[in-house]
Amino acid sequence: MAAVVFVLVALVVLALLASVHRYVWRRFVGDTTAPGSTLRTVGTVAAFVLPLLSLGAMTSGRIGAPFWLQQALAWPGFLWLACLMYLTLALLVGEVVRPVLGRVLARRDAAAATHATAGTGTSGTAVDGTLAATASATRPRTEELVPAGRTCPSTSADPAPATAPAAEPGPEAVRDTERADPSAPADARPAAPAPGITHPSRRLFVSRVVGGAAAAAGLATVGYGTANVLRGPSVQRVTVPLAKLPRAAHGFRIAVVSDIHIGPILGRAHTRRIVDTINSTSPDLVAVVGDLVDGSVADLGSAAEPLAGLRARHGSFFVTGNHEYFSGAEQWVNHVRELGLLPLENARVEMGGFDLAGVNDIAGETEGQGPDFVRALGDRDRGRAAVLLAHQPVVIHDAVEHGVDLQLSGHTHGGQLWPGNYLAELANPTVAGLERYGDTQLFVSRGAGAWGPPVRVGAPADVTVVELASRQA
């Protein structure tokens, strides 16, 4: 049954992607280029190649493709997904602008045509008058045409003389007639152009203007979001008062980092930037709350090595996220331990003024390694403050039940790509920041890396220094 559901969902997703690509092709290529042109050929080829690159980027890691191939597919494939999203959003806005711009141009053309027509009519009347006067002055009289000694033929002898067929009146004459007799019947006037018909050149102009603006807006947004990721996380600070925290622990600083996502795109240099950012805050403790990697230790072990440079008075701690269970969680737990981080696998340690606990991610349940709150918190002294590391915010209700004072989480990326934050709100109690649930406070980090497209829009990457405050101080 699960396999059938998976296939149906996959088919729906593929159909949706095909429809969106068709729409984007039509607006950017079909409406703006001539059939058979080089630009249309290039655009059509891109419309087939780019989605294939995206599918390859999303599936190559899961099927165990060589790491070099994952890297080759990841940048263009994932970046195109971000471009597709923002290009589509920009085009949808353009659908509102398109008819408005068309009407403005139509009115402008109509006004220009009316002005030109009025000028042509006045000029034509003057010219006709001049020509008529000239013809009258130069026309020979009848008697001048009759030779001497002959008489002009009598009209009675020719009651119906042949006459030249009357010429059809020109546009100027018709306009003069209308001005002279406004009451002339409508069928005697020239037919006006049919309303509502868009001139082909105008339609092409509108398509190119709207398409060009949408392309500029979409690509600029992706470029801005990519720069946000590549320059590394910023430092945020938040103070969290805890009722049970002793005076001696007042001001204890925990550097919280989540969702680093070392992978085919974000490698060793990315890890180094994050480590340098954390060390610059001189924390008392470092908490890495899951989704460290997207790949195996064999492929990414060296990219994670800068983590050995983390510096904190009370050490660095790690809990698993859902992506660790896609990448070989047991191997990664062992590797981070070798790098000097202490994994908290449903475990607890006592710090100077509080208990620090950690639970495995929910995704570990498929391997019999899910979160175990009883093991991590069941036998502790509830008179002491407790800080819990848990990757996903959704376990906050278990934390409340077990008397946790502060839960530190990640997973949401703050939405990562606006308007993805609205979708993230549907699946998580808190998307980013600090909120209270009963006697328990929950802080959710936006994360320091990115999953999929290396792009962040409306949710900048961060490392947050959580400073614990004692109410007794």
Shape designation = elongated
Give the tally of β-strands: 12
DSSP helix fraction: 40-55%
The helix/strand order is HHHHHHEEHEHEHHEEEHEHEHEEE
- What fraction of the residues are assigned to beta strands by DSSP? 5-15%
Number of helices: 13
Distance between the ends: 58 Å
| Structural class by sheet pairing and helices | alpha/beta
Radius of gyration: 39 Å
Please list the strands of the largest sheet in the order they lie side by side: 1-12-2-3-4-5
Query: What low-confidence regions span 5 or more consecutive residues with pLDDT below 50?
Result: 123-197
Description of the molecule:
It is built from 13 helices and 12 strands. With 473 residues, the protein is α/β, with parallel strands linked by helices. The radius of gyration is 39 Å and the shape is elongated. The relative contact order is 0.11. Residues 123-197 have low confidence and may be disordered.
